[in-house]
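ok so for the tutorial part 2 we go from a plain amino acid sequence to predicted structure tokens. step 1 is just haveing the sequence, like this:
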Amino acid sequence: MRVKRGVAAHRKHVKIRKATKGFSHPNRVSVKRGRQTVTKSLQYATRDRKNRKRTFRELWNTRINAAARLNGTTYSRLIAGLKAAGVTLDRKVLAELAVNEPKAFEAVVKTVPKKA
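step 2 — the prediction. this is what the tokens look like for a chain of 116 residues:
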């Protein structure tokens, strides 16, 4: 007896249709176009997870620089000084301190050795 694949194919199609929820009409109703757009959307998701890390680091650096300049130094001098002083705060934490705890950030800046 031959194997009919109707049930398996239907199940695959339902899976694609579920994944294309919220897409534009042709990409949602056509299984072939839906499969293509789901594949592409997964590629975009991978790319954008990397980009999100990049943009957050950019934001943190900007915030640290702004706060550092208010305390009489620059971003590069602050980061170099922190490394020299052995302070292991990452940029995310430094940016959080700069925005929400200016006094604590000022204390961190004071730990940086002054170079003549």
